[in-house]
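Whiteboard transcription, Tuesday session. T.W. wrote the structure tokens on the left side:
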């Protein structure tokens, strides 16, 4: 389950960046709204999956309040899911 969460974290981060760096400029500067719509849908699904998996793993692994809060906060900040994946989740898979 941890591996699946790591993949979800990376994909959520990619979709977040794609939404803001690629599709929003296309929508507002080039007048192409469709890529924003589809990437937005994908990001929404990945965001919800990330939150659900973070809470499930938090409870399952009995992580501290600090670690659980960092996982949840990371879903709101650009690049933060990549940081969390490398600092908090990657070491967990090595144990």
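and on the right, the sequence the group agreed on:
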């Amino acid at each position: 389950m941890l591996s699946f969460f790591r993949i979800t974290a990376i994909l959520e981060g990619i979709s977040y960046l794609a939404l803001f760096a690629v599709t929003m400029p296309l929508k507002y500067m080039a007048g192409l709204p469709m890529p924003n719509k589809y990437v937005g849908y994908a990001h929404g699904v990945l965001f919800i999956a990330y939150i659900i998996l973070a809470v499930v793993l938090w409870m399952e692994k009995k992580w501290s309040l600090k670690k659980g809060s960092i996982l949840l906060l990371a879903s709101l900040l650009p690049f933060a899911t990549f940081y969390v994946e490398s600092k908090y989740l990657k070491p967990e898979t090595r144990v």
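Someone added at the bottom: DSSP finds four helices and no strands in the chain.
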